[in-house]
């Protein structure tokens, strides 16, 4: 029987030749935990009686969620991560280095065809490289540190084919928002997604990451972008599904006519054409996150804001996905265009995405964000409204003071 | 394992982890903080009303969103004895089992607020004592059941040191 991508990758890491529905034990190539999840993982690891982390060279800790720390409690948890990392010889990326998912790819802790578990749901982002990467909780991660393995249930796969050519100003963010709206927040629960088609073949790695990233917003365990057309510095093996692979669903989407999309409060799958909500007043814009905080995203915003000023009733916060993105934006002039337009740059990292610090909205305020979730209270205030869109949509909205 | 108690019913789909425990409260290892704020954006009175042994009932895709293990820990430290949902989000379900928070997936049921419920995890059944009905739950995979029966993943791995005990 033909195999899907995830069936192939899991079989390569297991002693069995598995198919969807099977439960098996896999060897894990790399792990990642953040300052939200690593402290609890460290505690669980110690309670399991753990002494030495397996594969410490591929164990990555990142301080990105509340970075730099907003209070002493968080500061002390982060200090614990540093001492654990020294004791165990793991990698630690400290404040300002960037978001874990970006760092894993930039620093080559993940390669196509590998299995990566991260104690963060957006670990699915690595599917942009054709890796099986998924989120687990802290204790599951501690179990991988202890044993180098974990158990998985092989999911069924949904195949999505994006055909056509995007209109100018329409991006992979609009494609994935559209799909999340179509399949719904639980549309891919317990399943994996394979994205392919002429539209994905032309995408940059950054745009592919945006696609894979929001797979979890449909509940998926993993999202693979077809590696056709993907260019990496080192050669790699392209894992393709077999022609007779079995899919639970197949959807074909023509993206040529797609308009910019916006997800309205309070769920990522409440998606409409941007024109449907235009004139909604906006007080704050945010560009950043593991979905859209890369150089091409900042450049897209700069294209809209070049030589202009944001509306006086709005604020624009930008948190680059990594220090590298910040350097690149400084070098090519993007940074200057955006700050002159009125943007405030924050530390590279998650920034205000998860509502712990730096940019919590006031009651009744409307926020347009390039991130991935707009659940009630997501940005730290349950009385505010978060809209999601591409970086160009964010830039246009803060320019006019409305969506 | 049987759990009997009064129910808190939230007949809505997609109760996400941000609503179970907002991100701003997760930066601690002190579980009493989670218990004080559990479900506060969904029902600000829940944390005060909940009694040890109560049962939480929800609809589909309970616990979607982030991978934060603090979500099942928050519900557990608030005293809830078992969560019954029509379906669960994948990471939440796995986390709940790992931290020893009992969960059972029951796709079809007529549980209403005030109903008295008895859930039997080993049989995979839920009895509605008030209505005199029995609902079938989905069976947990064997590996999860052994982790759960060990009291959670920490005690399981402390004992076996491997996922494949011979
Ligand atoms: S940027 Fe937002 S969604 Fe991404 S890892 Fe950070 S908090 Fe999570």
UniProtKB/TrEMBL annotation, chain A:
Short name of one Pfam family: Aconitase
**What's a single GO BP term from this record?**
L-leucine biosynthetic process
Q: Which cofactor does it need?
A: [4Fe-4S] cluster
CDD domains linked: IPMI
Keyword list (alphabetical) reads: 4Fe-4S, Iron, Iron-sulfur, Lyase, Metal-binding
Q: What name does this protein carry? A: aconitate hydratase
Q: What is catalysed by this protein?
A: citrate = D-threo-isocitrate
**GO MF annotation: an example:** metal ion binding
Domain of life of the source = Bacteria
EC numbers, comma separated: 4.2.1.3
Report the InterPro entries cross-referenced here.
Answer: Acnase/IPM_dHydase_lsu_aba_1/3, Acoase/IPM_deHydtase_lsu_aba, Aconitase_4Fe-4S_BS, Aconitase_4Fe-4S_dom, HAcnase/IPMdehydase_lsu_prok, Homoacnase/IPMdehydase_lsu, IPM_dehydratase_rel_enz, IPMI_cat
What PROSITE patterns has UniProt attached to this entry? ACONITASE_1 (PS00450)
Q: Which family does it belong to?
A: Belongs to the aconitase/IPM isomerase family.
- What enzyme category does the UniProt record give? lyase
* Annotated Aconitase/3-isopropylmalate dehydratase large subunit alpha/beta/alpha domain residues: 7-274, 277-401
User: What is the scientific name of the source organism?
Assistant: Natribacillus halophilus
Q: Entry's NCBIfam families?
A: hacA_fam (TIGR01343), IPMI_arch (TIGR02086), PRK00402.1 (NF001614)
From TrEMBL, chain B:
Q: Name one GO biological process term.
A: L-leucine biosynthetic process
Q: Which is one Pfam family of this protein?
A: Aconitase_C
The UniProt record lists the Aconitase A/isopropylmalate dehydratase small subunit swivel domain at 52-107
Entry keywords, A to Z: Amino-acid biosynthesis, Branched-chain amino acid biosynthesis, Leucine biosynthesis, Lyase
Q: Which E.C. number(s) belong to this protein?
A: 4.2.1.33
**Gene3D superfamilies hit by this protein:** Aconitase, domain 4
Any single GO molecular-function term of the entry would be: 3-isopropylmalate dehydratase activity
Q: In which pathway does it act?
A: Amino-acid biosynthesis; L-leucine biosynthesis; L-leucine from 3-methyl-2-oxobutanoate: step 2/4
Entry-linked InterPro entries: Aconitase/3IPM_dehydase_swvl, AconitaseA/IPMdHydase_ssu_swvl, IPMI_Swivel, LeuD, LeuD_type2/HacB/DmdB
User: Catalysed reaction(s)?
Assistant: (2R,3S)-3-isopropylmalate = (2S)-2-isopropylmalate
Top EC class of this enzyme: lyase
Question: Looking at the keywords, is Cytoplasm present?
Answer: no
Quaternary state and interactors: Heterodimer of LeuC and LeuD.
The protein's matches in HAMAP family, at most eight in alphabetical order, are given as: LeuD_type2 (MF_01032)
Relate the protein's function as given in its record.
Catalyzes the isomerization between 2-isopropylmalate and 3-isopropylmalate, via the formation of 2-isopropylmaleate.
User: Of which family is this protein a member?
Assistant: Belongs to the LeuD family. LeuD type 2 subfamily.
- Name it: 3-isopropylmalate dehydratase small subunit
Q: Which organism is it from?
A: Natribacillus halophilus
* Taxonomy of the source species: Bacteria, Bacillati, Bacillota, Bacilli, Bacillales
């Amino acid at each position: 029987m033909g195999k899907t991508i995830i069936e192939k990758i899991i079989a390569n890491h297991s002693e069995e030749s598995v198919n969807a529905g099977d439960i098996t034990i896999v060897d894990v190539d790399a792990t990642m935990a953040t300052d939200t999840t690593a402290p609890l993982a460290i505690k669980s690891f110690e309670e399991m009686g753990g002494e030495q982390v397996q594969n410490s060279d591929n164990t990555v800790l990142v301080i990105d969620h509340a970075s730099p720390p907003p209070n002493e409690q968080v500061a002390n948890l982060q200090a614990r991560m540093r001492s654990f990392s020294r004791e165990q010889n793991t990698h630690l990326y400290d404040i300002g280095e960037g978001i874990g998912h970006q760092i894993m790819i930039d620093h080559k802790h993940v390669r196509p065809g590998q299995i990566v578990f991260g104690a963060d749901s957006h670990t699915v982002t690595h599917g942009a490289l054709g890796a099986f990467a998924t989120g687990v909780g802290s204790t599951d991660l501690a179990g991988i540190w202890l044993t180098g393995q974990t158990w998985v249930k092989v999911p069924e796969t949904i195949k999505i084919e994006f055909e056509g050519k995007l209109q100018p100003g329409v991006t992979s963010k609009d494609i994935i928002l559209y799909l999340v709206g179509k399949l719904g927040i639980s549309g891919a629960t317990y399943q994996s997604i394979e994205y392919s088609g002429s539209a994905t073949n032309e995408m940059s790695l950054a745009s592919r990451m945006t696609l894979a990233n929001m797979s979890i917003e449909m509940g998926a365990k993993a999202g693979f972008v077809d590696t056709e057309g993907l260019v990496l510095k080192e050669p790699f093996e392209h894992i393709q599904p077999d022609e007779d692979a079995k899919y639970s669903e197949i959807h074909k989407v023509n993206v040529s006519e797609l308009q910019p999309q916006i997800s309205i409060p309070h769920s990522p799958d409440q998606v409409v054409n941007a024109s449907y909500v235009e004139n909604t007043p906006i007080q704050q814009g945010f560009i950043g996150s593991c979905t859209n905080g890369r150089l091409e995203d900042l450049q897209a915003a700069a294209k809209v804001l070049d030589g202009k000023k944001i509306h006086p009733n709005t604020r624009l916060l930008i948190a680059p996905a990594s220090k590298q993105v910040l350097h690149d934006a400084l070098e090519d002039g993007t940074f200057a265009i955006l700050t002159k337009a009125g943007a405030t740059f924050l530390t590279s990292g998650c920034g205000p995405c998860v509502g712990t610090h730096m940019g919590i909205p006031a009651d009744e305020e409307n926020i347009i964000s390039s991130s991935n979730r707009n659940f009630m209270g997501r940005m730290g205030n349950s009385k505010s409204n978060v809209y999601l869109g591409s970086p160009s949509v964010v830039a246009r909205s803060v320019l006019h003071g409305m969506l | 394992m049987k759990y009997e108690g009064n129910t808190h019913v939230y007949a809505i789909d997609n109760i996400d982890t941000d609503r179970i425990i907002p991100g701003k409260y997760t930066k601690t290892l002190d579980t009493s903080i989670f218990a004080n704020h559990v479900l506060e954006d969904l029902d600000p009175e829940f944390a005060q009303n909940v009694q040890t042994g109560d049962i939480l009932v929800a609809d589909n895709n309970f616990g979607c969103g982030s991978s934060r293990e603090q979500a099942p820990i928050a519900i557990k430290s608030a005293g809830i004895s078992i969560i019954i949902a029509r379906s669960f989000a994948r990471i939440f379900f796995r986390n709940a089992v790992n931290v020893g928070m009992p969960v059972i997936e029951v796709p079809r049921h007529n549980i209403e607020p005030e109903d008295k419920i008895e859930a039997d995890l080993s049989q995979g059944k839920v009895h509605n004592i008030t209505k005199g009905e029995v609902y079938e739950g989905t069976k947990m995979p064997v590996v999860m059941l052994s982790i759960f029966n060990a009291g959670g993943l920490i005690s399981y791995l402390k004992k076996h040191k491997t996922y494949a005990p011979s």
